[in-house]
Prior knowledge:
This protein has 13 helices and nine strands. Helix content is 57%, strand content 14%. Helix 2 (53-84) runs antiparallel to helix 3 (110-142), helix 2 (53-84) runs parallel beside helix 4 (147-166) and helix 3 (110-142) runs antiparallel to helix 4. The chain has a four-stranded mixed β-sheet with strand order 1-2-3-4.
Amino acid sequence: xxxxxxxxxxxxxxxxxxxxxxxxxxxxxxxxxxxxxxxxxxxxxxxxxxxxxxxxxxxxxxxxxxxxxxxxxxxxxxxxxxxxxxxxxxxxxxxxxxxxxxxxxxxxxxxxxxxxxxxxxxxxxxxxxxxxxxxxxxxxxxxxxxxxxxxxxxxxxxxxxxxxxxxxxxxxxxxxxxxxxxxxxxxxxxxxxxxxxxxxxxxxxxxxxxxxxxxxxxxxxxxxxxxxxxxxxxxxxxxxxxxxxxxxxxxxxxxxxxxxxxxxxxxxxxxxxxxxxxxxxxxxxxxxxxxxxxxxxxxxxxxxxxxxxxxxxxxxxxxxxxxxxxxxxxxxxxxxxxxxxxxxxxxxxxxxxxxxxxxxxxxxxxxxxx
Length: 370
């Protein structure tokens, strides 16, 4: 469970509870490796003892798909509790080291964060019990060395590992979130986050050192990703707390220069040079409605020799992202980051009230921190 954007390099394969389920490119790299490991490991952690080579790889594939299905269920556990507590889930992404449920924002209520954090490991441990009971029913009939009992035993053990491993107090893993929620009842939320990030980084550092000592590349990579994840979420929380209580209206530029859709690109370049702004709303001169937005990156796509004969209407972006003046500044920052844009129009009662850019937000963060 994390608070991050993983849409780049991901493909959607379906929806559950209205939540897009995506595969990250790293998942496509790790899946064949799991198939090979399960197919060639001896029982009870693999199928190398199965007589047919074809069946070894068939059950290796089934085990791999079932494992990552369990990872999805783990993340759906987080997501279900989050939705019940009015926290929106953008997507669930399967990647190299498991699943990530991307939330709009992490709840600052320690009780809610604890419930969401516990839900995933709870699902994994429940699945472990189901697989263990199934194994106890099937193994006496088919034999413990048969493929199906091996599959059930393997999935039971892996779900125990998945549940317990995620409870380690290594922020931003589930255990790290539980640690932060506990500390947040005894200190400020920002200090609880800083302490949880520190503990998470220490766990990650220890994991990397141990991985180097035993020459285990997977441990090194997991430690590295935990360290990066802790650092990123720590920064995101600091920014959110810095912008806490700040509205878009407090930082937006109110005097907005708009341009006509019929203006040529060359004239737009002159305007940009004069006003030193890199983005402008495009407003219909007659109806006075916003038709789009045009930025310097749009201009760069047009060769110099064609700028006199190309109008803004031909290069503008019609899909205009907007925000209200009373919205939180952090909401604006999230929209800009998630959509990869440089600015948002601030709209009020169908009219342009201002414009807020990434530069405005960064400058505000810097000033508020001083």
